[in-house]
Specification:
alpha+beta; 3-stranded antiparallel β-sheet; single chain; NE0471 N-terminal domain-like; globular
């Protein structure tokens, strides 16, 4: 599943209404992203958050400085549809066995 993001609308707080290429719409609350830290720490500045834009060539939600969120992730959050099977979520990654090199 490759679903491009085609339109965003800012709502209150850290919420964005999103429209995707297949016509589906939904709202994503980015409050959970603020808690992730790392590169997402920048989103805590609401003025920075409001600089979100869509890279029209890729259909991806972006912010200045190279921060972006995959449209498949946003589609899942906005519509309640599961992530595509090819996406490696943090939970799936944590369940994979880790192999150690022999010394």
């Amino acid at each position: 599943m490759y679903i491009d993001l085609v339109k965003i609308k800012f709502l209150d707080g850290y919420k964005l209404e999103m429209k995707f290429a297949d016509g589906k719409k939904g709202v994503v609350d980015f409050t959970a992203y603020l808690k992730k830290g790392g590169v997402f720490r920048r989103l805590r500045d609401v003025e920075y958050f409001k600089q979100a834009y869509i890279d029209k060539e890729l259909g991806v939600l972006c912010w200045p400085g190279g921060l972006d969120v995959a449209p498949e992730t946003l589609y899942s959050e906005a519509t309640g549809k599961p992530l595509p099977s090819w996406m490696d979520t943090e939970e799936q990654h944590a369940k994979k066995p880790r192999h150690r090199k022999a010394v």
